[in-house]
Write a structure and sequence with these properties.
Blueprint: H1 3-42, H2 67-84
Amino acid sequence: MTPSELLLEGVELMLFGMGFVFVFLVLLVLAIRVMSRLIEVFAPHTPAPVASSAVPSGKPASQEPDAELLAAIQSAIHQHRARRG
C-alpha cells in the first residue's frame, strides 16, 4: 500500500468511528429523554415537605457560655501561649 492509500484508509476509518460515536450519542440522548417522560407519567414529581425552621427542643439558646466551657477555653489558650514562649 502506498502512503496515500494508507492516509485515505485512515481518514475513512476516522470518519466511520466519529459517525458511529455521533449516532450512539444521539440514540443515548433520545433514550434518556424517553425515560424521563416515562418517569414523569408513571411517578409524577411531588414536592418535598418543607422542613420547619423551629429551634430544636432542649436547652434554650443563651448568649453566655457555661462557666466550665470558659474555664476550659482559658486553660487551653494559656497552655498554647506557654508552649509558644
